[in-house]
């Protein structure tokens, strides 16, 4: 690697050894009778580590490969977790979706690294968003968010997340002429982005799936914040106060006019309704408590019998079988994957907004899942990126990580790097030679006395 002085081979070795230790732990503590059962899982996970590390190094010369290795590490752990829920086996479908996530990561990187190209395609982003909204209204059936195609199902609302993030990023790339509307000066880009967000919010309400609404709200808030903090923008106290007032009113209205099932979740006492509305959360909390720090052992849990054990309450399932410490390690890796790209300086203000939108979306989504499983907030039913099972979520999350990588990792070649070093060294030598001091002899003072005239 270029930036953090870690060799590519060492990072690959760390990823392989981590997965090998997890598989060995599953063999020693898990519900596994024979070594042959673990053979497909071992070959698949370790083989993917080697192949992806080789392909990524061969075809892409980047400033840093931190995001690639963290993503590879997290996906391998996810395959191991999903393969042991309830019994020992190999989660073939989840493994395929992990490979698709790696491919989508590279696609997202290639499509979003050139901000000028994305800016020129802004109108197509609105067209894609409109097509996704129409597909939900026309193809999902009666107020649903899923499109069923045979044995497969897609969730178009997941694909709306990267499109909306790119819309937020393209809306602040440059200053726009403003118009006065109700004592406020706003641009057409801001109006269009606000209308798009309101349409998404109404769609979520119509389809009775408000769990993803906080994610879109967080992305929209980051976009507006970056718009206010634009380097050449003039901050207006009136605009800031107006936005805050509107935000408070929207929250109050959402709580008051929320659908009945949402209000029931806000006021439910799960321990008094263990067989009703609080069934999943009660089972999730009990599983976390029974798992303790080190877990019951892979494949020895009982939470897999509860609906959505591998998606909506996957955090509790991992805590039960692998322990709370392993679950914390998983969260730490996922947080590092999201936050480390923010350390390096972004390539442009467009990429700054894009990175903030991606991080906000993934953190809100992860927080809703974990806090809902722990009964700290009402149960929302959203997934943890890369850990929960689901093809639509996995593809979208992979594309989002590619956007993170594109924001802070320009492509360089080794020859270009060497030429830049040579030019810098020559310039430094030229500057030092120009500023070198030349010794100058001072004239000696005359000791003769001047004549005095009368």
Walk me through this protein's architecture.
By secondary structure, the chain is mostly helical. The protein has a two-stranded antiparallel sheet with strand order 1-2. Helix content is 63%, strand content 3%.
Secondary structure elements and pairings:
Layout: H1 8-29, H2 39-59, H3 66-83, H4 92-112, H5 115-120, H6 122-139, E1 147-149, E2 152-154, H7 156-170, E3 178-181, E4 184-187, H8 188-206, H9 213-228, H10 237-256, H11 260-267, H12 279-291, H13 314-322, H14 324-339, H15 349-373, H16 391-408, H17 414-434
Antiparallel strand pairs: 1-2, 3-4
Helix pairs in contact: 1-2, 1-3, 2-3, 3-4, 3-14, 4-16, 6-7, 7-9, 7-15, 7-16, 8-9, 9-15, 12-13, 13-14, 15-16
Short structural description:
The protein is mainly alpha-helical. It has helices at 8-29, 39-59, 66-83, 92-112, 115-120, 122-139, 156-170, 188-206, 213-228, 237-256, 260-267, 279-291, 314-322, 324-339, 349-373, 391-408, 414-434; strands spanning 147-149, 152-154, 178-181, 184-187.
Main attributes of the structure:
454 residues; mainly alpha; two-stranded antiparallel ribbon; 17 helices; 4 strands; globular; disordered C terminus
**pLDDT averaged residue by residue:** 79
Whole-angstrom Rg: 28 Å
Structural class: mainly alpha
Helix content bin: 55-70%
Report the count of strand segments.
4
| Biggest sheet, spatial arrangement of strands | 1-2
| % residues in beta strands | under 5%
What is the ordering of alpha helices and beta strands? HHHHHHEEHEEHHHHHHHHHH
End-to-end separation in angstroms reads 87 Å
Task: List segments where confidence is low: pLDDT < 50 over at least 5 consecutive residues.
Answer: 411-417, 450-454
Count of DSSP helices? 17
Largest sheet: 2 strands, antiparallel
Shape: globular
């Amino acid at each position: 690697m270029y930036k953090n002085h870690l060799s590519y081979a060492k990072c690959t070795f760390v990823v392989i050894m981590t997965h090998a230790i997890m598989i060995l732990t599953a063999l020693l503590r898990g519900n596994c009778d024979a070594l042959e059962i673990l053979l497909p899982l071992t070959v698949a996970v370790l083989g993917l580590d080697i192949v992806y590390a080789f392909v990524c190094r061969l075809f892409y010369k980047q400033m840093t490969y931190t995001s690639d290795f963290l993503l590879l590490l997290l996906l391998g752990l996810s395959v191991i977790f999903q393969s042991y829920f309830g019994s020992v086996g190999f989660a073939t479908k989840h493994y395929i979706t992990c490979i698709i996530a790696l491919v989508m990561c590279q696609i997202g990187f290639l499509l979003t690294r050139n901000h000028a190209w994305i800016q020129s395609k802004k109108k197509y982003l609105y067209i894609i968003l409109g097509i996704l909204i129409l597909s939900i209204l026309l193809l999902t059936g009666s107020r649903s968010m899923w499109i069923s195609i045979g044995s497969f199902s897609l969730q178009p609302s997941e694909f709306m997340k990267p499109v909306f993030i790119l819309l937020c990023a393209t809306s602040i790339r440059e200053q726009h002429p403003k118009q006065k509307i109700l004592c406020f000066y706003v641009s057409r880009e801001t109006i269009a982005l606000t209308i798009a967000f309101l349409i998404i919010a109404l769609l979520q309400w119509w389809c009775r799936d408000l769990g993803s609404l906080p994610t879109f709200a967080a992305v929209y808030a980051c976009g507006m914040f970056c718009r206010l903090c634009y380097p050449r923008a003039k901050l207006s106290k009136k605009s800031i106060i107006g936005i805050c007032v509107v935000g408070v009113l929207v929250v109050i209205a959402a709580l008051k006019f929320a659908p009945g099932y949402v209000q029931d979740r806000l006021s439910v006492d799960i321990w008094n309704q263990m067989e009703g509305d609080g069934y999943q959360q009660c089972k999730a909390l009990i599983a976390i408590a029974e798992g303790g720090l080190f877990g019951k052992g892979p494949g020895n849990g009982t939470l897999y019998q509860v609906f959505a054990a591998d998606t909506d309450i996957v955090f509790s399932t991992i805590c039960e079988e692998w322990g709370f410490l392993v679950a914390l390690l998983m969260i730490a890796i996922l947080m590092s994957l999201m936050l480390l790209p923010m350390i390096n300086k972004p390539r442009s203000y467009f990429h700054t907004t894009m990175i903030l939108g991606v991080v906000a979306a993934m953190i809100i989504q992860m927080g809703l899942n974990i806090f809902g499983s722990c009964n700290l907030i009402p149960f929302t039913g959203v997934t943890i990126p890369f850990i929960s099972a689901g093809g639509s979520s996995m593809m979208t999350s992979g594309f989002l990580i590619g956007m993170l990588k594109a924001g802070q990792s320009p492509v360089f070649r080794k020859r270009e790097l060497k030429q830049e070093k040579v030019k810098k060294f020559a310039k430094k030598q030229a500057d030092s030679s120009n500023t070198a001091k030349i010794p100058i002899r001072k004239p000696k003072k005359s000791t003769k006395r001047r004549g005095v005239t009368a």
